[in-house]
Amino acid sequence: MKCDHVECGSTDKVWTPLLIKDNPKGLKPHSYCIKCGIFKNIGSDKAKGLGYFINVISQIEKSLKIRGSTVRMRLVIKELEKIEDFTDSFSMSKYNQEKVLISIIKKYYNIPDRTIQQFL
What we know:
- This protein is α+β, with helices and mostly antiparallel strands and 120 residues long.
- The protein has four helices and two strands; from the N terminus they run E-E-H-H-H-H.
- The chain has a two-stranded antiparallel sheet with strand order 1-2.
- Helix 1 packs antiparallel against helix 2 and helix 2 packs across helix 3.
């Protein structure tokens, strides 16, 4: 079930590691949801909506012209839709979304990471 995040007050923040693209950059006070406990993404790398990634998948399909790619594209989208917090800007960063997308695309398409990243 998706949470309607309620942010803690500014005095209740918790000092946790600040990660930028999986690299620690010291400690920083993070807000968290008082309902589910998830820490808020405070970086500038905000999560994108599902439509953004559907467009990326569509661009990959059109440019690579792989046989049966329409069916594969639909399977990738279905997997993204199953991930509950994929579009949750509170807990997900665009970098993490891209990592998830690349791993799912690689399941259905035999293309290298670098090719996928060109479309992101």
